[in-house]
Hints:
The protein is an alpha+beta fold. The protein is built from 3 helices and 4 strands, in the order ββααββα. This is Prophage CP4-57 regulatory protein (AlpA).
Amino acid sequence: MITATTSNTKLQQHDDSANIRLKTTCPTFYDKLNPLSPHFDFTFPKLINFGASVTGFIEAEIENWLALRIAVRRNACSTEGGL
């Protein structure tokens, strides 16, 4: 795994650590990033290139996306009388 910090921005290589953090697989990442996929999510963090064949995410963008998903779920539960 490549982890780098540049001007207070932490970058993580797109590998098993990202899969574990988001509890998903590589094909799911690409589905969420592909506008032609039925699973496309325009809010999902965009990949960045570390090199010719290495991609990754900005860690803060992943954290923000997760926080957004949690807020949406909690809002849906509270408005529907759920948990």
